């Protein structure tokens, strides 16, 4: 009964002397402190909303405008040209009061007008993208004027969402431009006869149905903030009825060489603390060009909930707890107490309590997470039938409303032991799918802490793209290792409050074990088919490549084209993701890396053309790739426009043979670069071992490859290659085609003088 008495704030009994009232001051104090924290957060939200709402001006600038207007009126001058007098006529006040109030009203209207004017000017400036196409050292006069103007209008330190209303809208490309660029992109993939047929389909579409669809799309662009993003989120992600595990979710890895501590609970304590500190950040790091921050809104407290026809993203404003999974059991772990964030040491203490808890999993509880890994329709049906009320709903709410999900894995992972290469592959597969039931794949992201202290995450894709999650993970790793730190014995720093309540064990009543087993079977078959290979390439990095006056990204993309050609004796449609966050609510666009120029270089190389000719073609291929990337970033891409035209055609109930064929083409080579965005957090000169492995994803096509790479520092590139075992033509780690590929690219980079022509340079094992 002692616990029950502690659980209430007050109790009373009726006695002959009257009512005997007993208060629990400790409980009331906790309630008071929690309420104070809640109100502080509300005030902070209102304050931040005001600051970002008037950006690029400041709230205090209203006072200067008001003082200026009152000063001019005191000098017997009317800056409003009669407007103040008209306002006075409608105010039922004394003469002095009318003068003061009307001046303040006019000052407010003038202030708001100035804000709108400044915001409009900033939007016009941010709509200028020609600077991206200018060569290094050859800056135009327009750009020279543009840079200081942008800096002037954005000189005030912005909050995270300050630029949102000043960002331009994504433009709708002209349909003839998109069709022309599409035909150019598929030319090297088709025979003459196939290309003629596709050209006829494209011309017919452009001259007939295309213009009609384009009009609807332009109407949407006038009305909506972004003409792509909502349809992209819904039809590409949320309406997919297959498993999101492997097919959609992606992963991020820990440091390659370093594990800050081998104590699992301590690593979890610092990692959880770092993530929650990131959630409290209200400002963005300094950047020359502002990017859309809309994807950050749903980073925490977000869950993808299943539906029969389409899933829904649910987001809550705040959450003071995280959901934790360990040995088949689920816990709710409160990370705030009395209005303060628990210290890393206190979170470690709570995590250790979970690790030491000997209680077994309830029947059906251990593999419950498999429902999120299998097909979406069965999960939606089970959720509606068995998780919409009672104890199951309360426990499911605790997971879905949590800030994020944490898995305390009982395995050890990382580059270790006698087979470090094979262990890295196992590490990648573990983060991508785990045991298919020990991650909650619906959460915005799930953090995995392994038994030996290694960490990683698995992220759901619909709410945001990889660069947003990478920014979060970079901050987390750096804060964990360099700011929070550990004691000499590997534990978190800080003190522990002894009265912390036990982590709350979630309780389930699960009569759906047959469906759990069915979903697990689907997910397990998918996971077993994935072949992952992770390879840290240490021979050289962007430092040497840039000395060749070649874009590192173009260099790697052409390497991939050459590797694929030597592996399959042909070219394929290649997907490289680029961002469109220069525009409001921008997501991604496709860079079609397989170009006429890259194919011409590879054919010349394979046919034995002269070294000088190959160098020339390689330079052209690199410049073409850079131009394609810039066009994609500035709204002149191909695929999102064609995708939206296709969606409009479906709404209108009309068929387009051209669009149908375009949208059905397989991406056999799907690639993505993980950008390093916060190099200031990592001192690789003094701490060279703190190198990030980046992350990866599953193959997009059954007979294709998924390739992710991260360019770390000046001397290293980490690659993640995935394919499917079920396809006999794809193996992530067998041939030696990339060894020769990179050697040849170095040879034809026209920089013999810096000694890059070295036959021993290789990307061994990073092969198709």
From TrEMBL:
Topological relation to the membrane, as annotated: Multi-pass membrane protein
A GO term, aspect molecular function: carnitine O-palmitoyltransferase activity
Transmembrane segments: 54-75, 100-122
Pathway(s) served: Lipid metabolism; fatty acid beta-oxidation
Residues in Choline/carnitine acyltransferase domain copies: 170-730
Catalyzed chemical reaction(s): (R)-carnitine + hexadecanoyl-CoA = O-hexadecanoyl-(R)-carnitine + CoA
Domain Carnitine O-palmitoyltransferase N-terminal: 1-47
Pfam families (UniProt xref): Carn_acyltransf (PF00755), CPT_N (PF16484)
Keyword Aminoacyl-tRNA synthetase: no
Annotated catalytic residues: 461 (proton acceptor)
Biological process according to GO: carnitine metabolic process; fatty acid beta-oxidation; long-chain fatty acid transport
Broad class of enzyme this protein falls into: transferase
EC number(s) recorded for this UniProt protein: 2.3.1.21
Protein known as: carnitine O-palmitoyltransferase
């Amino acid at each position: 009964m002692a616990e029950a008495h502690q659980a209430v704030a007050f109790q009373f009994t009726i006695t002959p002397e009257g009512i005997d009232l007993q208060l629990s001051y400790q409980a009331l104090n906790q309630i008071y402190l929690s309420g104070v924290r809640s109100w502080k957060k509300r005030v902070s939200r209102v304050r931040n909303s005001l600051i970002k709402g008037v950006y690029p001006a400041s709230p205090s600038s209203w006072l200067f405008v008001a003082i200026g207007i009152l000063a001019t009126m005191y000098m017997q001058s009317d800056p409003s040209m009669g407007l103040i007098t008209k306002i006075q006529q409608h105010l039922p006040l004394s003469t002095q009061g009318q003068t003061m109030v009307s001046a303040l009203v006019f000052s407010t209207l003038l202030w708001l007008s100035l804000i709108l004017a400044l915001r409009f000017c900033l939007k016009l400036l941010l709509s200028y993208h020609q600077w991206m196409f200018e060569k290094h050292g050859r800056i135009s006069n327009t750009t020279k004027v543009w840079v200081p103007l942008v800096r002037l209008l954005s000189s005030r330190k912005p909050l995270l969402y300050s630029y949102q209303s000043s960002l331009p809208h994504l433009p709708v490309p002209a349909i003839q431009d998109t069709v022309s660029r599409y035909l150019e992109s598929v030319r090297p993939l088709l025979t003459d006869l196939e290309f003629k047929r596709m050209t006829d389909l494209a011309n017919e579409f452009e001259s007939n149905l295309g213009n009609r669809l384009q009009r609807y799309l332009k109407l949407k662009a006038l009305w909506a903030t972004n003409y792509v993003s909502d349809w992209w989120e819904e039809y590409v992600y949320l309406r997919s009825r297959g498993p999101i595990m492997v097919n959609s979710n992606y992963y991020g890895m820990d440091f390659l060489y370093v594990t800050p501590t081998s104590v699992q609970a301590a690593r979890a304590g610092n990692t959880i603390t770092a993530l929650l500190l990131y959630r409290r950040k209200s400002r963005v790091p300094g950047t020359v060009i502002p990017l859309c921050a809309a994807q950050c809104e749903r980073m925490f407290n977000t869950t993808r909930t299943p539906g029969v026809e389409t899933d829904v993203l649910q987001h809550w404003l705040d959450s003071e707890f995280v959901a934790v999974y360990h040995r088949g059991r689920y816990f709710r772990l409160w990370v705030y107490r009395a209005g303060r964030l628990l210290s890393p040491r206190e979170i470690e203490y709570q995590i250790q309590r979970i690790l030491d808890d000997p209680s077994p999993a309830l029947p059906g509880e251990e593999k419950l997470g498999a429902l999120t890994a299998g097909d979406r329709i069965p999960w939606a049906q089970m959720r509606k039938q068995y998780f919409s009320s009672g104890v199951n709903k309360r426990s499911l709410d605790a997971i879905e409303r949590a800030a994020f999900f944490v898995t305390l894995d009982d395995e050890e992972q990382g580059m270790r032991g006698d087979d470090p290469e094979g262990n890295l592959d196992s590490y990648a597969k573990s983060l991508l799918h785990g045991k298919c039931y020990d991650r909650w794949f619906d959460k915005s992201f799930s953090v995995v802490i392994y038994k030996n202290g290694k960490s990683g995450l698995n992220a759901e894709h619909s709410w945001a793209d990889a660069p947003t999650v990478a920014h979060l993970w970079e901050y987390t790793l750096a804060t964990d290792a360099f700011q929070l730190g550990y004691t000499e014995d590997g534990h978190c720093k800080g003190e522990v409050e002894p009265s912390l309540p036990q982590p709350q064990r979630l309780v389930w009543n699960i009569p759906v074990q047959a469906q759990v087993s069915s979903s697990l079977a689907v997910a397990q078959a998918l996971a077993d088919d994935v072949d992952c290979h992770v390879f840290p390439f240490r021979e050289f990095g962007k430092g040497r490549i840039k000395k060749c006056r070649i874009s590192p990204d173009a260099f790697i993309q052409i390497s991939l084209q050459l590797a694929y050609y030597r592996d399959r004796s042909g070219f394929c449609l290649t997907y490289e993701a680029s961002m469109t966050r220069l525009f409001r609510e921008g997501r991604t666009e496709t860079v079609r890396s397989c170009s006429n120029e890259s194919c011409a270089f590879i054919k010349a190389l394979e046919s034995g053309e002269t070294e000088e000719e190959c160098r020339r073609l390689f330079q052209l291929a690199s410049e073409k790739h850079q131009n394609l990337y810039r066009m994609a970033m500035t709204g002149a891409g191909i695929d999102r426009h064609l995708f939206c035209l296709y969606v409009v055609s479906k709404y209108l109930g009309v068929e387009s043979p051209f669009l149908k064929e375009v949208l059905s083409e397989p991406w056999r080579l799907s690639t993505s670069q993980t950008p390093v965005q916060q190099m200031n957090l990592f001192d690789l000169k003094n701490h060279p071992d703190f190198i990030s492995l980046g992350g990866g994803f599953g193959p997009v096509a059954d007979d294709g490859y998924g390739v992710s790479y991260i360019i770390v520092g000046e001397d290293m590139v980490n690659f993640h290659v995935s394919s499917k075992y079920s396809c006999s033509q794809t193996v992530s780690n067998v041939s030696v085609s990339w060894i020769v590929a990179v050697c040849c690219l170095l040879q034809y980079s026209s920089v013999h003088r810096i000694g890059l022509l070295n036959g021993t340079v290789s990307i061994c094992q990073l092969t198709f």
